[in-house]
Amino acid sequence: MKALSANRQMVRAAMAAPYLERDEEHDLAVRWKDNKDQEALHRITMAHMRLVISMASKFRNYGLLMSDLVQEGHVGLLEAAARFDPDRDVRFSTYATWWIRASIQDYILRNWSIVRGGTSSAQKSLFFNLRRLRARLAQDDPSLSKSAIHLQIASTLGVHAKDVAVMDARLSGSDPSLNAPMSDGESGASSDRIEFLKSDEPLPDEQVSMIIDEERRHSWLGDALNTLNARELRIIRERRLAEDGATLESLGSALGISKERVRQIESRAIEKLRAVMTADAPEIASL
């Protein structure tokens, strides 16, 4: 009930937002682009939320919540605002339409299991146009067979007829619920489908083992680093342990030595670390 109330409030707010005249829209877009004026951005997006809602409603038959579709459309609207050039002779709504539709379609593709394996532009076009084309062809010529319809759709969209047939079969079916009961086939006991799914995560004992091994490696490395002198330690930390490793040139400039000398010190330090770590823990030599 709360979600429904929130959706209604959002729709009412969108419908109540005033339309923008061309000059006003241009001024707001300039304020946002040049000065990052948040008030200007808010007025632009609110004035176009009715466009988002309208476009989201066109995709409501894909089994996803309307509120989620609107939210994704709003993401596309913000992306359009970030990229819009007010100096071009085009209205913002015209420019934003593509971004709103693309954001909603990407969200649908991410959440429909039947198209997880095919997200090329051709597959997207097939997914979003198959139903419409199939209905139109069947209406124009009711005598057409399913295979003939598939051939015409394939020709129109530039895809293989086999791809059309596969997508049509998938769209005609429904995703099984993970809470649907299944029998284990032996005892006859019934469990939810989700309990039969194989997880790619390591088993609990493997996870614990990985954590312990990681802690050991950190301990070995810490002890080995203590054997380096200050300059060796700095070079190793900044070259090997930092997220963005420093260059030989930058370290050489900071230390007042040549980049070749930095490379020599680094090589010597690595050999010292390897010698200490393999002496204390021979099993790490293969890592």
Describe this structure in words.
This protein is an all-alpha fold. Helices cover 68% and strands 2% of the residues. It has 3 domains: 2-111, Four Helix Bundle (Hemerythrin (Met), subunit A), CATH 1.20.120; 115-172; 204-286, Orthogonal Bundle (Arc Repressor Mutant, subunit A). A two-stranded antiparallel sheet has the order 1-2. A hairpin with a 6-residue loop joins strand 1 and strand 2.
What is the fold's blueprint, element by element?
Layout: H1 2-16, H2 22-35, H3 38-47, H4 49-57, H5 66-83, H6 92-111, H7 121-140, H8 146-157, H9 161-172, E1 181-183, E2 190-192, H10 204-225, H11 230-241, H12 248-255, H13 259-280
Strand content: under 5%
CATH classification class of the largest domain: Mainly Alpha
Helix content: 55-70%
Just name the CATH architecture of the largest domain.
Up-down Bundle
Q: What sort of overall outline do the alpha carbons produce when their principal axes are compared?
A: extended
Number of domains: 3
Radius of gyration: 30 Å
Q: Total number of β-strand segments? A: 2
- State the order of secondary-structure elements, H for helix, E for strand: HHHHHHHHHEEHHHH
How many helical stretches?
A: 13
Return residue spans where pLDDT drops below 50 for at least 5 consecutive residues.
Answer: 114-118
Q: State the strand order across the main sheet.
A: 1-2
Biggest β-sheet, characterized? 2 strands, antiparallel
Structural class: mainly alpha
| CATH topology assignment of the largest domain | Four Helix Bundle (Hemerythrin (Met), subunit A)
Tell me the span between the first and last alpha carbons. 56 Å
**Nearest-integer average pLDDT:** 79
